[in-house]
Amino acid sequence: MVNDTKQRPLIIAEISGNHNGSLERALEIVRAAAKAGAHAIKIQTYTADTITLDVDTPAFRVSDDHSLWGARTLHSLYEEAHTPWEWHAPIFALAQELGMLAFSTPFDETAVEFLESLDVPMYKIASLEIVDLPLIEQVASTGKPVILSVGTASIAEVAQAVEAARRGGCADLTLLACTSSYPAEPDDANLRRIPVMKEMFGVDVGLSDHTMGVGVSIAAVALGATVIEKHVTLRRADGGVDSAFSLEPEELRLLVEGCDAAVRALGSADVWATGAESESLRLRPSLYVAADVKAGDAVTTHNVRSVRPAGGLPPSDLPRVLERTFVRPAAKGTPVSWDLLR
């Protein structure tokens, strides 16, 4: 995967239809994503006519009960949501100028050809296109890294898609766990499949996250996700086909910071006490003289106590210490050591 973020997950800000029909708004989202710390910008390359047919029958309409797009024809939805192809070059150029990767999801062979003319560094295959094996093979044949969402797919379908990518020549494949509902509920994320997918298919695994907020994505990173994709908008209140499940810039910033913290927090199972705990180690309790004593005084629970800080004998030695006497005077606050006792 093309990623300069070292061990941090690649954070992809998906614009999708959140441009709301305005190139300037799309460019403003790019600027906001860069400022928030996202590592990549992604758009989608299709037209209403390349992705569906202009037909108004039940099969070509979103189900009536869909929470966002109920009863809309696919053609009208995609007509509103698509990113005009002439916008791709300025969106990519700005993202690259701001230090981000810029790439897209193609939905047919003409989109791949167009994106190749723009020399995109990588590709994403959408969840619903996981069954379009010829498209996956065509994308893989470019020799560039491929990210493949597995929403809606069975294990067998994922295996077929992975095989198609490898058959096409893809040497750098990442799968994204995904729940293809909008918005998705955390209960449906099933993040435990991330390490299972990694082991099963021998590839990196990330998350395409359609839930609200950032918690699910951060949890995914803790389970090994190497890529996080989130839809991003300027303001949900502005509306648009994807706004309801998209992050605003400040939330995107929290996502970047949270994922970075999650990776750093994983650390190593071999480490217990760390150098960062040196001050706390110094303040652990030990045995100290708690009242001034003279030579020959017996040790009691009154004149020797387990208190903070460290420096004296460990508290576990108190029963043995109580059997002894002091060999010399000691002031309150003196750490107890064996050479102080008889």
From TrEMBL:
> Keywords in UniProt for this one?
Transferase
- Residue ranges constituting the AFP-like domain according to the UniProt record: 286-342
List GO molecular-function terms, semicolon-separated. transferase activity
EC number, UniProt record: 2.5.1.97
Q: Does the keyword Ligase apply?
A: no
Q: What class of enzyme is it?
A: transferase
Q: Which InterPro entries has this protein been placed in?
A: AFP_Neu5c_C_sf, Aldolase_TIM, PseI-like, PseI/NeuA/B-like_N, Pseudaminic_synth_PseI, SAF, SAF_AFP_Neu5Ac, SAF_PseI/NeuA/NeuB
Residue ranges spanning the membrane: these are: none
Pfam families, sorted: NeuB, SAF
Q: What's this protein's name?
A: Pseudaminic acid synthase
Q: What is the lineage of its organism?
A: Bacteria, Bacillati, Actinomycetota, Actinomycetes, Micrococcales
Tell me what gene encodes this: pseI
